[in-house]
Each structure stands twice: as structure tokens, then as C-alpha cells.
Amino acid sequence: MNKLTPNPHQITGRDFLASRFHALLGDDPGLEKTYTLTLACEAINAQKILVTCPASVRTHWYETMEMGRGHTRGLDVISYNAAGDEKHRRGLRDKYDVWIGDEAHFLKTLTSRRTKALFGNGNQGLARRATYKWPATGTWAPNHRPIELYPVLRALHPDFATIDFATYAHRYCGAYWNGFHLDVKGA
Fold first, then answer.
1. Dihedral sign of CA atoms 50, 56, 62, 63 in order
2. Are strands 75-79 and 49-53 parallel, antiparallel or unpaired?
3. 33-43 vs 58-69: helix axis angle to the nearest 10?
4. Which of the residues 74, 150, 171, 183 has the least number of beta carbons within 10 Å of its own beta carbon?
């Protein structure tokens, strides 16, 4: 297969990611984030890569890595739904150089099975098995609410690791008690 030629924004994205252990790639939809992430893996010479993504794009990841890297050795691609299932997780490695969370807005709910599977405590969370952690999506907050960013920020950014849900909700979402529950729809 022929290697792809990167666009200037992909070179910038590659350099940004490769220079950070934890970074969010938030390019707009259609800008080929998959290839940018592939380039970043090459830039750090990643040998073991774990990609979590919607099931519908798993094949696209293998194809892009094959075109970008020339091979798919060391690449594990698992859907978000499968990541939440222990039987599918058993075949995965204990350590990775890179974890990529494609369409990471799927991890917007702290209590969802997939978010727990990726960001769980200790080595239980798949993302925690990797040295580099690069979630990516063009739609970070699909409902335009900052509360949707909390799980990813908490898992990846040291400033948010110690902030509990209520503190984050009050500080960034204008949360208030509405008589039934904590309303976090604000910004």
C-alpha cells in the first residue's frame, strides 16, 4: 500500500501529540484525525497501540495504520462496547505505548460501563495501561455542556484528578440543587 501524504494540520497535530503524554485531539470532523494519530504513533516509535472506537470504524483503523505505518503489528483495536466486556478484554496486553480513544465523546458519562472500562482505577482501566493517552473527537461536548468533559479531564489531567464531580459541576457548570437532584446543565 502507498503511504499517505500528510497535510500541514496533520503534521502540527502529530507534533502536538508526540510532545505530550496526555493530549486531546479535537480537530473538526473530516480532517482525518485517524491519520494524524497514526503519524503521532510513528513519531514516538510506538510498538504497542490500543485503539478504542465505535465498532463501525475498527476496519478503518487497521487500514489507516497499514497505510501510515506499513504494518499493523502491535495494534489492538476494540470497540467501546467490547471494552466494557471482560471476556473481550482478556486478549489485550497489560501494557501499551499509546492508548487512542477515537470518538472520545462516547466517554462523557462518568458512570457508564464503557467509561469505567477505560478510566477505571489502577490497571483496571484500559487507558491506564498506556504511557501516552490520546483521546480524539470532533464533537467534545455533543450537548454543549461542560459536564460532558469531566470524565476525560479527570482521567488525563492532573489538575482535575482530585476534583470530585460536585466540585467540578459547581465550578464549571453552574450546578444547583433543583429539589430532586444536582442540575448540571449550565455552563
1. negative
2. parallel
3. 50
4. 171
Note whether 99 and 90 are within 8 A (CB).
no
Among all chains, which residue has been given the C-alpha cell 499509546? Answer: 98
Q: Where are the beta strands (DSSP E) in the chain?
A: 49-53, 75-79, 96-102, 130-136, 176-177, 182-183
Instruction: State the average pLDDT over residues 55-61.
Output: 96
pLDDT of 1 reads 44
With vertex at residue 48, the alpha carbon angle to CA 42 and CA 49, rounded to the nearest 5 degrees, is 75
Closest residue by Cα to residue 24 from 162, 111, 127: 127
d(C-alpha 67, C-alpha 62), whole Å: 9
Reference 104, options 35, 70, 153, 60; nearest CA is 153
Rounded CA-CA distance 99/83 in Å is 13
CB distance 16 to 23 below 8 Å: yes
Which grid coordinates are listed for 113?
Answer: 460501563
User: What are the pLDDT digits (tens) for 135-168?
Assistant: 999 988 887 888 899 999 888 888 888 888 889 9
Rounded Cα–Cα distance for residues 166 and 42 (Å): 39
Closest by Cα among 153, 170, 99, 88 to 131: 99
At position 28, the amino acid (one-letter code) is: D
